[in-house]
Amino acid sequence: MTEEAVPTRSDRVAKERRGKTRRRRRSTKLFFRDLLVIVVVAVLVSFLVKTFVVRSFYIPSASMENTLQINDRIIVNELEPGLVPISHGDVVVFRDPGGWLPPQPPTRQSPLAQAVDSALTFVGLSASDSDDHLVKRVIGLPGDHVACCNANGRITVNGTPIDEPYILLQPGNVNAATLAFDVTVPKGELWVMGDNRYNSQDSSRNQSLPGHGFVPIDHVVGRAFVISWPAGRWTWLDNYPDVFRGVEEDKR
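Below the sequence we write its predicted structure tokens.
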């Protein structure tokens, strides 16, 4: 008869240690697997949100002072104008319709900085393409008759003078725009102006271009609804519905 070997105490301890080591390794693998899944899902969700819902831009110029300051960060609702129609007074971000912006010199970055900026832009935490876009306030919607200026220096929309509390007027100037205009906004386009009328490449300043100063609605990225940075500037952006209250009635 063959006798079975009886494990010694040291054999049992060694076996227990091997079991604990295997369990530890398995737990570590599961932890890193779960962490990787969480990171991938977070990046994917962030990308989808940035692509279809909201997006960040920074303000590179003074054209919207005092509403927006240079280097402010804004959050843009990309559901407008796709799912939600644009309204009078909305602050919108749009692609250059053609010739509004001067050619931009190439930005020099180290490969590492460029890679980081591209990654942050991908997930919506940076705004590397802000220099290729403009931000203005919507004054005229399709079909509106927009003119400047009446005897009191105010813009009229569909014959209604609008009192604009958001514009930055220069001392001694009473007109709400630097150049005269009298236009009817075509279908599918907008008439937009900066709040700093004396320092803004807006519709009034681009009437001589092929687009005659109008912005195609399909160039609009979305509506800016909040200043997100710096923290001391955090605020919701108003579209001043009272300013344009009588405009739609006159249009009808």
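The radius of gyration is 29 Å.
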